[in-house]
Amino acid sequence: MPSSTQRLPLQTGRATLSDVAREADVSLATVDRVLNKRTGVHARSIAQVHQAVERLNYRPDPAAARLARPHPHRVSFVLPSGNNTFIEMLREQIAGSSGWMEDHRVSAQTHHVDVFEPQRLARRILALRGHCDTAVVMALDHPLVQSAIDKLASHGVGVITLVSDVPKSQRQHFVGIDNVAAGRTAGTLVGRFSGGLRGDVKGDVGVIVGSLSLRDHAERSLGFSQVMAAEYPGLRVLPPIEGKDDPKLARQLSARLLTAHPKLVALYSVGAGNPGISATLKASGRAGKIVFVGHELTPAARADLLDGTMAAVINQDAGHEIRSALRLAIARLTREPVHADQERIRIDIYLKDNLP
């Protein structure tokens, strides 16, 4: 008989949890507790399990993990309320993923809340406790929201931030573009389309954000200002004004900019509300004369690119983001490895000449 320190060679095939328990000389329940990072396990047992996992090259079986669950993995999406077209595109992608979710034993619900109101958003997040296994939240970077995410995570709910991050929270993953890089990209586009490389072009550049409390908007504004200050000093970036992603408010704000700043040469829309800005430019007769750069390739943005109202659109793929969020939610359940390259959301630049 082999001694307690000798192990019989593993049979060919994929290692199982039982193999890990036998190799580590612990119970199957202990292996489960260690791999799921639950408390109450002796440090020596934890080390033995991790060593056995490494020796056996143990990899979780995703199909077995899904089948072992007594109920589908419940995912709750928390998205902004209102008529934001990009949010509607995210909702459509959630609905379009129903077949994939059924195959992977996932159920999903979508909740809508005014994300510009931190108290409401925090309450909505806290209300998910006991009703989902993973929460995918498009969130405001605010102390109340961070606290709500942390409390939800402390009760065993995985939290994934979507589009806009809360990096100091206990969220599991962030799914979205590098927003500082996106803002820098917008700066280069505005500067070049405005003729700023020549150095003799001077003028004002307006910036309309949804809210600087949204981390994606704050980071885009930062990246934009960095490039404009360093590379296009002749173009003066005006202080950002908040439009709450509301087309009506964006229309009013952009009209005020045109009136107050006759030397306005460009407009950068950091968030949503682009149809309102487009309407202002067309009504003033300055569509195509003022460089207008914004985000998200919505149907309205596509039309504005084609008729010359918009010079360029910086896009993030809504479908990729929803699929990535769902894959990450499942990976937490099955302990599958996360492939960073697969989950990285690209920054796409669209002109009228390369529309898909």
Question: What does this entry look like structurally?
Answer:
There is one protein chain. This protein is an alpha/beta fold and 356 residues long. The chain has 3 domains: 17-59, 434 Repressor (Amino-terminal Domain), CATH 1.10.260.40; 73-176 and 318-345, 3-Layer(aba) Sandwich (Rossmann fold); 179-315, Response regulator (Rossmann fold). It has 15 helices and 12 strands. The strands form 2 sheets. Strands 6, 7, 8, 9, 10, 11 and 12 form a 7-stranded mixed beta sheet that branches. Strands 2-1-3-4-5 form a 5-stranded parallel beta sheet, sandwiched between helices. Strand 6 (203-209), helix 10 (215-231) and strand 7 form a beta-alpha-beta unit. The protein starts with 16 loop residues before the first helix and ends in a 6-residue tail after the last strand.
CATH fold annotation of the largest domain:
Rossmann fold
Distance between the termini: 67 Å
So how many helices?
Answer: 15
CATH superfamily of the largest domain: Response regulator
- Helical coverage, percent range: 40-55%
Give the ordered list of helices and strands.
HHHHEHHEHEHEEHEHEEHEHEHEHHE
Number of strands: 12
CATH class (first level) name of the largest domain: Alpha Beta
Tell me the fraction of residues in β-strands, as a range.
Answer: 15-25%
Overall domain count: 3
Give the rounded overall mean pLDDT.
Answer: 91
